[in-house]
From TrEMBL:
InterPro entries in UniProt: Glyco_trans_4-like_N
Name under which the protein is recorded: Glycosyltransferase subfamily 4-like N-terminal domain-containing protein
Domain Glycosyltransferase subfamily 4-like N-terminal: 17-205
SUPFAM superfamilies noted in UniProt: UDP-Glycosyltransferase/glycogen phosphorylase (SSF53756)
Molecular function in Gene Ontology: glycosyltransferase activity
PANTHER family named among the record's database cross-references: GLYCOSYL TRANSFERASE GROUP 1, GLYCOSYLTRANSFERASE
Amino acid sequence: MKVLMLTPYLPYPPSSGGQIRSYNLIKQLSKKHDITLYSLIKHDEERRYIGELEKYCTEVKIFKRPTKPWTLSNIFKTGIGPYPFLMIRNFSPAEKSDLNNVLKSEKFDIIHAETFYVSLHIPQTNTPIVLVDQTIEYEVYQHFVENFKWKLLRPLLMIDVLKIKLWETRYWEKAARVIALSERDANSMKKLVPSLNVAVVPNGVGEDLMENVPLHFCKKIIFVGNYAWLQNVEAVNILVREIFPRIKKRVSDAKLIIVGQNTDKIPTINSSDIEVVDLKIEDIEGIQKAYHEGGIMVAPLYGPSGARLKIVGAMAAKLPVVTTSIGILGIDATDGEHVLLADTFDEIAQKAARLLTDNKLYKKIATNARSLVEDKYTYQVIAQKLDAVYKEATGGKS
């Protein structure tokens, strides 16, 4: 098939979240399909990565969006117009114009839109659209607004949340098929739009973390993420302020290592037992090192999000995980077998302490989690699921 794929980021380097998912799916899908990729970039230096994607894509086209989202222009357009800030800051007039011309002159079998907000670029077309919502975006921002520290501003911010919800559901309805990353998200979508045809295509693990390493039992707790995302900043704040002190009372020699991109978004931490490791976006080896040298991952995730790549990545790397019932969404893992689950700060700390001190439990969780990933979460398996959705959306084409 000829696939036209739109992403709100350049899917290389595969260092965080959606980039990892898109890059690995492109690699697998390119074995059967011709992919034309349209991506947004913020910085001109990202152009140097185009060659890595041209190995798998027939053509790669990139378009600039504002380097800094909070421009006066973006704020003004959001305030007076129908679109939410999320769509405004991820919109390129040049991309919309180019797509309009390309779809008039060239025939594609399918349009793959990664996130609903890239859909603003797509003109009216008869080409079937498969829309992938990596998370239900309005829920993410609603969670942020509900917990926003300045209560008087919450009603104003909620207007933008309602705009996101309006457009997100509208684009779901326009798509031939919609893809969620978890059953929970799929069910939430169908509650809002009962007629919606939703498939679940979860996240997988890239080859960089599929290396079969020995068990690495130690007292290092890690958390990995891109701290440009609200959910990761919230999780780190909870981990540092609430959970790690409770763990230290039980395991006095425990250490906490916070790893990832944009660590300047995290409040200053003053503790000799906590290390912050800032990684450049292209530093794939730094991510690998964190997963392979850590003892356990503690991920107190409470905000809704479809992309739980840090969790499946840790499982692949034989790094036992303690997370919440929300943190495990989209992953077919069993509490006590593949992962340890808890929702209160005390319970999370208690289960983390058990893993740090019980070698037998550590080995059980690490080994079972690795086997689960090998069976269900490699990108070869995930790409087959996506390919099946393509066939359904196009009436059986292959």
